[in-house]
Amino acid sequence: MPPTLPSPPAVFVAASSLPGRMIFTTWLWFTACHAPPPAAPPGEPIPAAAELELGTMDAECGGLVSALARYKQCANLDEDDRWSIGAWSERAQEDFAAGKKANPEPSAQRAIAQACHKAVVSVLAANERCHNGPRPER
């Protein structure tokens, strides 16, 4: 039986045909003559965030407890969510009472006030989402 694969000279003739050379030449021209575009110039610098107007540690953390109480009253929450929010509120009150007993230094009080402020912003956003309608079904 004769071999089914083409002989080496036949492969050379097919690869060196005019269409094959045209494709290779086009590919070589395209890759050699097209450099990547230059990088974009840098934009304007982003300004730093404005300094927060923070209250005292007691005021900011008391605001967190009251924000949690308002969030717990949302009509679109189910009982599990209300229970979780109540547990968060109790834990926050316990932690703040322990923090007052420890009497942290002023820089630590500022850090605690910043953390409470961030938490208040988050709880207020969650409260707004809750008042806009029930959670979608999963």
What do you see in this structure?
The chain is an all-alpha fold and 138 residues long. Helix content is 65%, strand content 0%. The chain has a domain at 57-131. The chain has 5 helices and no strands. It is elongated, with a radius of gyration of 34 Å. The model has no long low-confidence stretch (mean pLDDT 83).
Topology record:
Layout: H1 8-15, H2 18-33, H3 57-72, H4 79-102, H5 106-131
Quick rundown:
Helices cover 65% and strands 0% of the residues. By secondary structure, the chain is mainly α.
Describe the structure using short key phrases.
138 residues, elongated, mainly alpha
Question: What does the overall shape look like?
Answer: elongated
Major β-sheet annotation: none
Q: What's the average pLDDT?
A: 83
Low-confidence stretches: none
Number of E-type strands:
0
What portion of the residues fall into strands of 2 or more residues?
under 5%
User: What's the end-to-end separation, in Å?
Assistant: 66 Å
Please, how many helices? 5
Evaluate the radius of gyration: 34 Å
